[in-house]
Specification:
By secondary structure, this protein is mainly alpha-helical. 79% of the residues lie in helices and 0% in strands. Helix 1 (3-33) runs antiparallel to helix 2.
Length: 110
C-alpha cells in the first residue's frame, strides 16, 4: 500500500466522520426542539462510536506518517498539530495496553 492509497483511505474516513458529526448535530438540534427523544440521540451516539474510533486511530497514523525525520522539524510539526488531540488510546502505548487487556481476557476464556 502506498502513501497515496493511505491518504485516499484517510480522506474517505474523514468524509464518513464529517457526515457523522453533521448527522449528530442535526439530531441534537431536533432533540432540543422536542422532535426526537434524548434516548434516540444517545442510541445514535453509541452506533456512531466505531466511526469516531476508526477516524481517531487513522488520524494518528497519518500524523505519524507525515512526521518529518529531522529532530528540529519534528518539534515544529508537533507544535503545528497540537490542536489535533489524539486520545491516549490511539497512541502506541494506548494500543499496547488495549491489546494487553484483550489478551488477558482471551486467556481467561481459554
Amino acid at each position: 500500500m502506498s502513501r497515496k492509497d493511505v491518504q485516499n483511505y484517510y480522506d474517505q474516513m474523514f468524509q464518513d466522520y464529517y457526515e457523522m458529526v453533521e448527522a449528530l448535530k442535526d439530531m441534537e438540534k431536533e432533540c432540543a426542539e422536542g422532535l426526537v427523544s434524548p434516548d434516540r440521540v444517545e442510541q445514535l451516539k453509541k452506533m456512531l462510536e466505531p466511526i469516531k474510533l476508526n477516524y481517531g486511530r487513522l488520524s494518528y497514523v497519518m500524523f505519524l506518517l507525515n512526521k518529518p525525520n529531522k529532530k528540529e522539524k519534528q518539534r515544529w510539526y508537533a507544535k503545528q498539530n497540537k490542536n489535533k488531540p489524539f486520545p491516549h488510546e490511539h497512541t502506541l502505548d494506548g494500543v499496547k495496553e488495549e491489546n494487553k487487556i484483550a489478551l488477558q481476557e482471551a486467556k481467561k476464556i481459554l
